[in-house]
Structure formats: C-alpha cells, structure tokens
Amino acid sequence: MAAGRLAPGQPLPPMRELAAELGVNPNTVAAAYRTLRERGVIETAGRRGSRVRPKPATTGREFVRVEVPRGVRDAARGNPDPALLPPLAGAFAAAAAQGDAEPVLYGADPVEPELARLARADLDADGVPDGTVTVTSGALDAIERVLVAHLRPGDAVAVEDPGWRSLLDLVPALGLRTVPVGVDDEGPLDDDVRRALAAGARALIVTCRAQNPTGAAVSARRARALRAVLREHPGTLLVEDDHGHRIVDLAPNPLAGTTRHWAFVRSVAKAYGPDLRLAVLTGDAVTLDRVRGRQRLAPGWVSRLLQRAVLRLWLDGAVDATAVAAAYGRRRDALIGALAERGIAAHGVSGMNVWVPVPDETGAVARLLHAGWAVAPGAVFRMSAPPGIRITVSTLRPEDTGPLADAVAAAVGSGPARHYG
Question: Which secondary structure element, helix H or strand E, spans residue 74, and what is its range?
C-alpha cells in the first residue's frame, strides 16, 4: 500500500488464500489484517472481505484540494476573513511583559487562571454543565485527546456526514471506525444517531453550530431529540465542537451532561486567527483528569504566553462578536438567496460556509475554476452523503454575489431542492 501497488478501494485476498501463498499460518494473516484494520489502513465488510480504505489514514484529506491559480478567487480553503481578525502585536507584547515580570516555570499551573475563569463564565452563560476548564492546542487536539482517553482501536465513532475533513481523517488514524450520521440544517439526524449507537458506536461527535461544511446548527428541537437518544445510551462518549463561538449569532444548544462521559471544546481559531493554536475544553471529571494527565506526559501544557495573549484579546474586546457574526451572515445569506433565485438549493444557517448539493462534483469544481472561482469538492467532507461543493463566503464582497451565483448556476444547472445528509 505504501508503495502504491495496492490502490485505495482495492480488495485484499482472502486470508486463507494469502496464507497458502505465503506459506504461513492463517492466524498470522488474520493478525496482520487486524492490525491494519485497527490502524485505519483497511476496512472489512463482512462476506465482502477486506479492502484498502478509500482514503487511508496516512493520506490527509486536506491534501486533496483545489489549487488556486493566480487570478482565481479563493472560496475553497475555509479561512476566516483576515479583515475581521484582530491585530495581535499589542496582546503578545502585553503577554511577554507579564512573562518577564512573572516567569512561568516547571510546576506552574498549566492553565492561566483568569482565562479559565472567563472561559467558564462563557460556558455557564450558554448552559454547558459545570466542569474544570483546561487548554489544548486547538479543537482537533482536544478531540483527539478525549477519544484516546476513553476508546481503544476498533471502537466505532459516530460522526457527521458530511463533516469536518480533518476529523474524518483523525478517527481512522487513531485505529477507530467511523460510522456516518446524516446531517440537515438542524444538526445530526436523531434517527441516524439512534441507529449508530444501537449498532455499537461508543462515541458521538457533534458540531454545535457553523458545522463544516454545511453550516448546520443544532436547533433546540433537535437537541431535545438527541438528548432523548443519548439517555437511551448513557455510556456513550459525547464530544461537542463549538468552533463557531464568537462568529455565530445563534446560541448553542449543548447536549453535554446527558451521558456519563462528555467533553465540550471551543477554539479561538475562527474568531481570532488560525495560528492561535488554542482551545478551551471542559467535560466530566474523569475525562478531564485523563486528558490533563496524558497532556502532562507529552507537551506538558499549552504556552502560558499564548494563553495570556488570548486572555488580553478577550479583556480588550478585540473582537466584536456581534459584528463579525453579522458580516458572515450577510455574505452567506446573500449567496444562498442569489442561488435560490437561480433555482439552486443551498444550505448554510450559520458560519462562513455554504453547501451546494450537485450531481457531479468534479465537473462543477472544474467549471467553476474555469470561470474564475475555486471551491472545495465535497468528496473530502463525505463518506456516504450525496455529492456537493463547499463555498467559503468569508471574503465575498457584495458585488461578488451575483457573478458567483451565475457561475454556480452555469456549473451545476438548476433543479429541485436536494436534501443533504
């Protein structure tokens, strides 16, 4: 597989056949297949046998991307608008001055106390159950640490489909199995979650709002339905990702606390800058204790200099969350409305992305690129969901909306509204 002689999706020989060919015990081949499966390199589908995963865990989906030539507008990479990000020099200067006066040495508290207090106050205001706050190097780092704290290779994790491409790579890279759960504008479909958990999924990962790539946000109605499902499976590890904090004007409807083990994570990347690798994490006592214990054995802690800089940005009100959410909302709604006028169904109730179901992703992406627009192919976000394209609206100007909608209409054609998930 590493040499490319076995391609993604290619079936592997039956274990007994391979054992005979190699002259080894069938149990040896079975053990090798099990190791490959646990590492996310192959998958087994009952009587259909084993095959190389369509996207092996060693191949990041983010490398399957559209290259943006010179002169082409980039609506593919999912970045926030740099004009809406705060300047960082003053915050880091203040943090460095504090570090000179109060150096952080080995044995110090790994979390800046005032940052934890403010983060906890925000969580309280949004109805997230009480719990210790810790800090990780971004949302994906937090999710990985929580999964590793509770699961072992071979366990199944229910994930949104379409969903965050980095997460779809991370889960199999940890030796875990992904179970797709459909999504609509109100979040994960409760019937799909029920089926996944009944079939043995040990964990569920939910995006509260600004879901990537669809812009879905968990509604109060869907939250009630999901809580009912989770109460039927109290042993489920629940992980909620609220990376849309401070860029979305919809309040979250957290599910946290419904199961015995849960975690709730908020990243600062979208509101303050992707290079600020910092997220706050809370959860039940066992989960947080395991995460912090394991963290002490590896990086030790997230730089207190970085934590103090983020804290300074918070205290200075460097981001006007209402204005940022309104800016992204205007751009998103304008594009969805313009597409609707052209007979194109599109989705995006929150965040900075619009999801457009299409019959042919490859053709749509190529035609839009030819028209001067780079968009993301839905394949990197999907497992079994229907095809689509993701358009990032973060830097769209008002005068861009009409031409982009025209280009999309020409690239995908108009038709009846399609349901995704």
Answer: strand 73-75
Q: Shortest CA distance to 357 belongs to which of 380, 384, 385, 396?
A: 385
Dihedral sign, Cα of residue 8, residue 9, residue 15, residue 16? negative
- Please check whether residue 28 is in contact with residue 35, taking contact to mean a CB–CB distance below 8 angstroms: no
Looking only at the bridges linking them, the beta strands covering 73-75 and 373-377 are parallel
Q: Are 33 and 44 in contact (CB under 8 A)?
A: yes
Would you say 171 and 209 are in contact if contact means Cβ atoms under 8 Å apart? Answer: no
| Size of the chain, expressed as the number of residues it contains | 421
The count of other CB atoms within 10 Å of the CB of residue 34 is 14
Cβ contact 324:271 at 8 Å: yes
E strands, 177-278, in order: 177-184, 187-188, 203-207, 237-241, 261-267
- What are residue 98's phi and psi, to 5 degrees? -65, -35
| 373-377, strands of its sheet edge to edge | 73-75, 373-377, 388-392, 353-357
Burial category of 89 from C-beta neighbours within 10 Å (exposed 0-12, middle 13-18, buried 19 and up): exposed
Cα separation, 304 vs 118, in Å, equals 15
What pLDDT sits at residue 338?
Answer: 98
Residue 132's pLDDT is 96
Read off the tokens for 94: 């203040």
Looking at residue 4, what is its pLDDT?
78
3-class state of residue 252 by DSSP: coil
Is residue 112 over pLDDT 90? Answer: yes
**What tokens does 228 get?**
């009912």
For residue 6, pLDDT over 90 is answered with: no
pTM of the predicted protein model: 0.87
Mean pLDDT of the chain: 93
